[in-house]
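Hey,
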Amino acid sequence: MNAPAPTHRPIQQLPDQLISQIAAGEVVERPSAVVKELLENALDAGATQITVRLEEGGVKRIAITDNGRGIAPEQLPLALARHATSKIASLHDLENVGTLGFRGEALASIASVASVRITSRTPDAAHAYEIVGSHEGTVAPSSGAFGTTIDVQDLYFNTPARRKFLKSEQTEYGHCAEVVRRIALARPDVAFSLSHNGRTIDHWNVGEAAKRSAHILGSEFAEARLAIDESAGPLRLHGYVGLPTASKARADGQFFYVNGRFVRDKVLVHAVRAAYQDVLHGDRFPSYVLSLDLDPALVDVNVHPSKIEVRFRDGRAVHQFVFHAVQRTLAQTSATAHGSVPAPITAAEVRPSGTPLWQLSESPSRPPMRPHEQTSFGSQLSTFSPSPYPAGSRWDDPSTQGGVAQRTEAYGALFKSDARATVPAPSSAPMDVPLSASDRPLSNDDFPLGFALAQLHGIYILAQNTRGLVLVDMHAAHERILYEQIKNALDAQAQGQEMQVQSMLIPVTFYADAVEVATATEHQDTLKALGFDIAALSPTTLAVRSVPTLLKNADAQTLARDVLRDVREYGGSRVLIERRNELLGTLACHTAVRANRILAVPEMNALLRQMESTERADQCNHGRPTWVQLEISALDKLFLRGQ
């Protein structure tokens, strides 16, 4: 189909109505854009209570009432005039925008494509005043409480072609509701109410940020989040980041605000994503509610008509600050960080009464086992150990837990009276950290993961703490421990410390193709930086002479092939910078204790203690949880205790 021939007209000044309608195409894309502009104006007016009423998804009616400062009657016509605003008056104001709305064309644009009525009353006025239509309308006395009500009806009534581009009523309502949720998340100090077609949908009272985010994002986010509040110079980042184990398949739980304004900024999204890279699987998305406060002069919010995009004066500095702040917060997700343990399995999540135990299956979100984790489920439970809790605690009283508890003295082999004595793990243990002795009463603060009771099917460690039962995936937990140790060793090497390597008494030789031999020869420096000494003995043979001490128990040939593959694929310098963490994760996975490896009780306890002292120990490098907590109340419900 041929395009219509251009019409030749002389250059002329466009009428104001047409100019406003053109601007409306940028500002008033759909009803939700109207809701956003009017809510921002209400907040800029100092409102503490805002009511949003919608009809037919906002197409028929959008009425927003606030209790803000109101608009004086003589200024009501200016409120509907193009490029008229009280928020900026000079270039300096534009470069230091401290309000949400400021362009001065939103109301004029809305009035050009809809019927608009503004009713407002200032604190010093005897009654309210209203204006209808446009800035040319007449201001008349009216009734109303202090504040402002803007009533927008019949959106796009005079531009029917644009109305055809709108979606269904429910879809348009969904977009409007999402805008209200975003703004309500950022302002817990303001009460919001939302209704649709005469029915109240949501109401949020004034409260704390923690309560508001839990109300809007749900209990799942509230039970699996970490608080963050860090400052550096003019920058402050505060809010909540979700635990990696509570990640989602979609990025619909991500809310970022800059000076109170919801934004979608590539710099900020990338910074948060990079902070999660160590603890999140590649196809999962974290949830978070984060607010970045900074000097308005350091950010340009006027780069897009909808003001949803921003530009930072020093984007790199902002990126690094956000990245390190979130990374430090996630590093606390170990058993020793109060309030950051994985969300427990509560009584409400346990099977209903009468449900057979065999119907209790593992969570569908758990990734399948990797091949080297597969095991025969005929393995026997390892030796049980007695309860480690101190005499006199509620766990020492059988009446409080419905079972037989034993005292800490039963762990005499592990905790001696001599505070200097230690009990190292057996020589076959995959861990090298000894168990420290103590002559004082033990508490949950000392050992939040409790003490090992048994090993299940060669895969899980069962431990008891004051809250109930702890289940640990021993391979996933040991994998995270090794990964953090290797990473720390490389970081220390970068600061001048020597990498600890284990020389082979007899070098491990294996057949290699020409590409592997060439890679080993060409990238000797990179391999040595990683702690490997791999030399070519012949055109078809490689010898592993040394490996990092932390990986000494792994299969040397497998490690060598993995390292050579990544170095060949990504290049020597790049694998140490961009792909380092992925490579270290692979090495840790191959080195970690395998499924079906029977551990003695001291070995299991050594692993628990290492988890408590390791950053990010709540999940392995693939984003899987390393441990879960089963509450006593959940166990009671399984056995119908107290019912």
